[in-house]
Design a protein that fits this description.
40% helix, Spore Coat Polysaccharide Biosynthesis Protein SpsA, Chain A, 308 residues, single chain, alpha/beta
Length: 308
């Protein structure tokens, strides 16, 4: 089913409804220069971590969580998607009992998207982070995520700078991860620029999810689901941004083979483009994402090379 029935011209012409949201003008206008309205409420964080095998990566993530400065208000939810590696569930049960984390387990493999949605529904935080199990978080993780969302009530979704993602390639390892995280934090312009957030660490304002819906399960086991959610938010008038003072390590593709990933992505991209045509490309060009990423990457590399 097409949610948008014609492609957008470079000027963004549109004459339709989207998920019941009426586009009031004849042109869809993406406004990146809106005036922020700070959110002065006390925001609580929930971190939802779907897990399927990748046991060694999971242990590294847990170690980083235990070292980070998470407050008692922060909720950690692990969801074991019926891992075939028997080490995973026993390990999760032990660390959740020890740290008072929440552990949920699917009786059969549900896939990434259904597991994420289950975690979102179970979460109690105002801001929900969908965090891949092949990541590591720095000590300032909670502080930086909440600062971003408190900077503007209209921010719906955000993601940080990453090591290996669709947009980023800033190599690091277990030994220099915190160093690069500190470089990013100390050298950032703290602009929270317009961005199409990525799924490896996908940060969501929960009240927006209640308005526009959760991840669309039509995308099966994963890929393109966060892009779809971002498009819904932008069309509804919300901001989506980069947390440009936060760095999160991401191994990438720990649960999928290269061939499996490509097949999932290709099939889901067809669904995505049937819905949105070329609107995503138009928005990304207005966001000037590529130039901003290049600027940040070069700055990090310069500081690291010169020990500034």
């Amino acid at each position: 089913m097409k949610l948008i029935n014609k492609k957008y011209s470079p000027k963004g012409k549109i004459k339709t409804y989207f998920l019941g949201i009426k586009i009031k003008t004849k042109k869809f206008k993406y406004n990146e220069n809106c005036i922020p309205k700070p959110d002065n409420k006390h925001l609580k964080l929930s971190v939802v971590i779907p897990v399927y095998n990748a046991f060694q990566d999971l242990k590294k993530l847990v170690s980083s969580i235990e070292k980070s400065k998470l407050s008692k208000d922060t909720e950690i939810i692990f969801l074991d998607d019926c891992s075939t590696d028997t080490n995973v569930y026993g390990y999760l049960k032990d660390i959740c009992d020890k740290n008072e984390y929440i552990l949920l387990r699917n009786s059969n493999n549900q896939g990434f998207i259904k597991t994420c949605n289950k975690g979102i529904k179970h979460s109690k935080g105002d801001i929900v982070v969908l965090l891949n199990s092949d990541t590591m978080i720095p000590s300032n993780f909670e502080e930086k995520v909440l600062q971003c969302f408190k900077s503007d009530k209209n921010i719906a979704f955000a993601s940080p700078i990453g090591s290996h993602t669709g947009w980023w390639n800033i190599p690091c390892n277990d030994y220099n991860f915190e160093k690069i995280a500190q470089i990013v934090s100390s050298s950032s312009a703290n602009k929270y620029p317009a961005f199409t957030p990525e799924g490896f660490c996908f940060c969501c304002r929960k009240k927006v999810l209640k308005k526009i819906g959760l991840l669309d399960e039509i995308y099966g086991k994963g890929y393109c689901e966060e892009d779809d959610l971002v498009m819904r938010a932008i069309i509804a008038g919300y901001r989506t941004v980069l947390i440009d003072n936060l760095y999160v390590y991401h191994k990438r593709h720990a649960s999928f083979s290269k061939e499996g990933k490509q097949e999932l992505f290709s099939n889901n991209r067809i669904i995505f483009e049937q819905r949105y045509g070329n609107l995503q490309g138009i928005i990304r060009s207005k966001m000037n994402i590529k130039n901003y990423i290049k600027e940040i990457s070069n700055n990090i590399q310069f500081i690291e090379d010169n020990n500034v």
